[in-house]
Amino acid sequence: MTIPKSVQEKVYFLPSNGEDERQRLEIQHDLILNSQGRKHIHAPINLETVSSVLETATGSGIWLKEVYQLVPDTAELIGVDISPNLFPPSPPPNVKYLQQSVLDLPKEWSNKFDLVHQRLLVLALRNDEWRTAINEMFRVLRPGGWLQLYEYDDWEKCGPVQQKMKDMVRLLMEAKGAHGIWPHGTTQWKEYMEETGFKDIRVTWHFWPTGRSAGEEGLRGKVNHLDFLKVSKKPIVGAGGFGIVSGEEEFDEWVEEVGRELDTRDGTRMRCVMICAQKPL
């Protein structure tokens, strides 16, 4: 199958503006926090002495706004994203948002930050770009500073229709040059960190329940996942459906079937990984 050039050129295929996307990201943020015991920072740093924090791919900026409450008033908090459209209009004092790519952070930021936080960029970076991003995050950390990376890993106990949906997302990523990263990117991210010079690499697993059997949290997880599938329709159908779906109508039918499947299967959940790593002193 020939993949349209427009599909290949742009990696990230989700919206970067609009109130619906802001709401989806903020519900997603809440689900992530619930899966982490409502803890924002897992890297072993002393919050009382934090002087600077960077969040790359900040999106709506909600994580950084909440971290502002956890660190000293004198701390400098910076969020960057290639799109400024979802930045909060009135950030707290000492918090600023800048249009900037993690692939090319300002040179003057070298050895600056106590913590760099990044999450859910697996759909936005190609394989070779991951090396660049991890090198850039290493560079801007001060010696002894920590990177906290959180990403999707894979689904557990998903049904056949959800498996097909996962296959289409994987094929779309492969068409964009991100083959080999998702699913199961943990080994590769660790290798990139080791190559860059990170030490004390710590891996923990976190899970999002989805579906009726997981109660209210499972229903919220299901709705958030279905919203993700709906905004994935245009690029997947635009790529020809990868021989799995024939068009928008069939894709919509599959989304509805995924919702029913999640409600009738016990134990379906998204497995996510957090990798914390330290820049040596």
TrEMBL record:
Residues in Methyltransferase domain copies: 53-145
Pfam families named in the record: Methyltransf_25
Alphabetical list of SUPFAM superfamilies matching this protein: S-adenosyl-L-methionine-dependent methyltransferases
Highest rank taxon of the organism: Eukaryota
Protein's UniProt name: Methyltransferase domain-containing protein
UniProt organism field: Leucocoprinus leucothites
